Amino acid sequence: MPLFGSKREPSPPPAPPQKHSMFSRRRSSSPSYRDTRHSSSTSRTTTTHTSSPKRTSGMFSRGSGDPSIATAKQSLMNAEAAERDADRALFVAKNAVREAREHVHRLEREAAEEARLAKIKQGEAKALGKKGKLLGRHDHV
Predict the structure, then answer these.
(1) For position 56, what pLDDT does the model report?
(2) What are the structural domain ranges in the chain?
């Protein structure tokens, strides 16, 4: 090996396969993506193609094949639908309560107005009664 000869760089070791942990995710959502790595002296491009766009989820990546997962998903969807129905029913009930309170308030105002008018009528009748008592006083003499 010459001391001052051409320097030949050893080829970089092959890149370790990427591991996806439970908390990491792929950057690309497309089924095929390109992974480009640059080394210090050379640049190489590694293209990886996946055969199917199957996405895996969950701790053990069993996905929809597990009947217990499918049952849990169905149960969750049923619970969400029931919650939406309950929200609608609550909205309807709140509107009915509001309308009933408004109706009671309207009746109270009407009753108060009728009581006010009755009081006025009573005062007028009392005044007429006093005038009526004054009539016919000459009959007693």
Answers:
(1) 56
(2) 67-134
